Amino acid sequence: MSEPLPSSLAAAPAGMALTVQQVSAPAYAPEWATWLSDLGFLPGEAVRVLRRGSLSDANLVVRVGQSTFALRHAEAECIAVKPSNV
């Protein structure tokens, strides 16, 4: 049985090649959308989770383009992704 497709970067397994579909922000932090876009999380950009903490809502280490960032789980939830080969 195949793995379910991730809907957000926070749900993506480590190592999967992904493409950013869109970036949104929660109502309590609308500035996150601009901040994440400024970091390079733009529609069509390649992204990959490199590492994640051991807890389900732990921080993630992600690569977007040629840059590597640590994101909180809540921030990664704002980034909609799809597998690169879909």
Outline the structure in words:
With 86 residues, this protein is an alpha+beta fold. It has one domain: Roll (SH3 type barrels), CATH 2.30.30. It is built from two helices and five strands; from the N terminus they run βαβββαβ. The protein has helices spanning 31-39, 73-76, and strands spanning 18-23, 46-52, 60-64, 67-71, 79-83. The protein has a five-stranded antiparallel β-sheet. A hairpin with a 7-residue loop joins β2 and β3. This is Ferrous iron transport protein A. Pfam families: FeoA (PF04023). Keywords: Iron.
List keywords for this structure.
about 90 residues, alpha+beta
Brief summary of the model shown:
By secondary structure, the protein is an alpha+beta fold. The protein is built from two helices and five strands, in the order βαβββαβ.
Mean pLDDT: 90
Helicity level, as a percent range? 10-25%
Shape: globular
Radius of gyration: 12 Å
Q: Tell me the span between the first and last alpha carbons.
A: 17 Å
CATH superfamily: Ferrous iron transport protein A (FeoA)
How would the blueprint of this fold be written?
Blueprint: E1 18-23, H1 31-39, E2 46-52, E3 60-64, E4 67-71, H2 73-76, E5 79-83
Antiparallel strand pairs: 1-2, 1-5, 2-3, 3-4
Protein name: Ferrous iron transport protein A
InterPro entries: Fe-transptr_FeoA-like, FeoA_core_dom, Transcriptional_repressor_C
Keywords: Iron
